[in-house]
Write a sequence for this structure.
């Protein structure tokens, strides 16, 4: 964190948790990166038809083991092993977000760590070792990116206010079709200046950095979104469901610089696909 920025009392409340999240990421990154470089894993298909590898499971288990020692009272919810514990303080884990990229040798994947307190995401960290990048935020503490806490820059969303000037990132069109929302998504794409499928966590980090202005996905789980929310919002943006519900609770996501958010939601809700 830059010495010129004084953290608020609120952000100091989660200072130790943020240090812990960085420490965990420091331990997990070499594990996932080694698997990625060697491509030495078998790929299985889960009941929801998404891929999973032993690297996913090993990474989540390492995170859980660390949390079991450092945060004995907190509960944990992860993609691979579900929920343990009953505390209102809950760590939410996606050990490898972007597994399809991971298994094909595409470097756009990351470990997502977040902390939820009493129904609010108060901390998020995204670590993408193959990209050599890391992003993080705590409530009222700003959003940051860098290789470490001591070497970071503060993030700010863009100032683009017109949809005709906006850049949109997404993951795929097939999900929109499966949810019966392809017509609305295509309408949004046609309204924007530029569209690119950067995909997964990276779309939202680009929103936080101001490199793109809008990102959206039609179907997501809590562990896909929780870590992203504080990074986008602390950078000055907005993160909601397609119905406008703030946070990662709606099963899908629209993230933006805030200035084009209302118009984006309107585009996505205007038309649904014919039955």
């Amino acid at each position: 964190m830059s010495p010129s920025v004084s953290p608020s009392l609120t952000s100091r409340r989660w200072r130790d948790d943020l240090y812990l999240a960085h420490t965990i990421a420091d331990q997990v990154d070499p594990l996932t990166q080694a698997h990625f470089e060697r491509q030495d894993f078998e790929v299985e298909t889960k009941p929801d038809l998404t891929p999973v590898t032993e690297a996913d499971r090993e990474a989540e288990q390492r995170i859980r083991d660390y949390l079991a020692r450092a945060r004995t009272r907190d509960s944990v919810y992860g993609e691979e092993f579900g929920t343990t514990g009953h505390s209102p303080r809950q760590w939410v884990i996606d050990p490898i977000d972007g597994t399809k990229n991971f298994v094909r040798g595409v470097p756009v994947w990351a470990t997502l760590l977040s902390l939820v307190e009493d129904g609010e995401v108060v901390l998020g960290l995204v670590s993408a070792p193959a990209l050599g990048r890391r992003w993080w935020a705590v409530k009222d503490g700003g959003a940051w990116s860098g290789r470490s806490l001591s070497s970071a820059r503060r993030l700010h969303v863009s100032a683009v206010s017109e949809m005709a000037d906006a850049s949109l990132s997404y993951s795929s069109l097939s999900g929109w079709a499966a949810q019966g929302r392809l017509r609305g998504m295509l309408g949004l794409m046609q309204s924007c200046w530029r569209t690119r499928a950067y995909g997964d966590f990276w779309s939202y980090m680009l929103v936080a950095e101001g490199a793109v202005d809008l990102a959206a996905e039609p179907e997501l789980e809590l562990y896909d979104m929780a870590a992203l929310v504080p990074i986008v919002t602390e950078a000055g943006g907005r993160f909601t469901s397609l119905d406008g519900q703030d946070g990662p609770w709606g099963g899908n996501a629209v993230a933006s610089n805030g200035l084009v958010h209302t118009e984006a939601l309107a585009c996505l809700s205007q038309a649904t696909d014919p039955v």
Q: What stands out?
A: The longest strand covers residues 89-97. Residues 1-6 have pLDDT under 50 and may be disordered. Residues 19 and 52 are 28 Å apart (CA to CA).
